[in-house]
Amino acid sequence: MSTDARPHVRSQELHQRASRCTPGGVHSNVRLPGPRIFFERADGAWLRSVDGHDYVDYLLGQGPNFLGHAPAAVVEAVNEACRYGVIFGGQHEIEVQAAELVCETLGWPDMVRFGVSGTEAVQAAFRLARAATGRTKIVRFEGHYHGWLDNVLMAPDGDGWGTASAGQLASHLDDVVVLPWNDADRLAEVLAAGGDQVAAVIMEPVMINAGVIEPLPGYLERVRELCTSHGIVLIFDEVLSGFRLGLGGAAGRYGVTPDLATYAKALAAGWPVAALAGRADLMERFGTGEVNHSGTFNGSVVATAAVKASLERLRDDPPYAAVEEHGMALMAGIRELGETYGVPLRAAGLPAAFHVSFGDADVVDYRTLQQLDLARYEKLADRLVDNGVWVAPRGVWYVSACHGPGELDAALTRFGKTLTEWL
Ligand code: PMP
């Protein structure tokens, strides 16, 4: 467990115990890297470990805790909903309220289907796109993440992209075309040659998972035009960006409307809910039964109560300006620390999510991101955790509605201490 001077006796005991009954001691491989810390509880922007150490949280459970941990209004709504029962194999009015609220809040979609994970929502989108177009191919982009299933999990493989896991069927990637992102000319070229075989283009409209890279001006607009002219379904994967970049997510922020979009994470303040939203002519294919989308736990009372309470809170008391201000100040503070300590610390991206690394490069896509010293940051991230800043090695920092001046001060003081010890 890293070089942390603080005792982690209880965490270590629990990790050993966990490793005997759970592979790697974790329930998601995303949690395999990094220290095996067990937490007792979390409140707002703070985590407390079972050994009594506190952490200012900029990982936020990989994004979902946009309202901070245990937001009172959502906890209350969920507790109340638990008393009604959870799943009926039928419907409850809260589902309707939550679905209406999703469509109203986003502004553009006509309909929404709830599910449990972002991974599933992406698969449902592919199925709709293939059914609607009668085509098979999916265009996706280097570095974007769309879940852990066989047809979307990919890793760099020599000059191209291939399977990322043992046991993954390479044949499931046969219908997947991988292109560099932020390059509309390249997409235009590929679609000019074979656009009539492409069912969907899917992307994170801001590539948060790899480097928090924004679309270049005009890029999303051109992708939109290309998809329309080739009869291709444009899917925005807003699992991370949705309700985080503003009430309208990335589509609202950049003013480009997809045909379908996936949401999760900030949608329900940490409760496991995902959604696929889109135009009625596409979504209705689920309603007629032509396209299958199922799930025992979809749209449970508890899940939809969490969606409703989260979106009401975001609508009635929008945290976006404060989140942006905090993110800007934190990025500036990190850059200043770099200057003070004479290291090329880079903090870039959106204020609500940003990327920290070492180096200086014109980063516009996954390949240019590799010019940064990402490995050096991974080591720093371990030390930041040792000093009570909860971040992941991948360099993406998430800001919540609960991050204020106290958290800013704690984060920068602890970051400075880390650099003093490390350099
Ligand atoms: N799409 C994006 C953009 C994501 O960031 C993630 C998860 N990080 C997923 C899809 C998959 O979501 P889940 O982990 O809920 O299956």
TrEMBL record:
Its cofactor is pyridoxal 5'-phosphate. Residues 1-27 are annotated as: Disordered. GO terms for molecular function: pyridoxal phosphate binding; transaminase activity. Keywords: Aminotransferase, Pyridoxal phosphate, Transferase. The keyword Transferase applies. It holds the Pfam family Aminotran_3. It comes from the Bacteria. Residues 1-16 have a biased composition (Basic and acidic residues). InterPro entries: Aminotrans_3, Aminotrans_3_PPA_site, PyrdxlP-dep_Trfase, PyrdxlP-dep_Trfase_major, PyrdxlP-dep_Trfase_small. Belongs to the class-III pyridoxal-phosphate-dependent aminotransferase family. This is Aspartate aminotransferase family protein. It comes from Jiangella ureilytica.
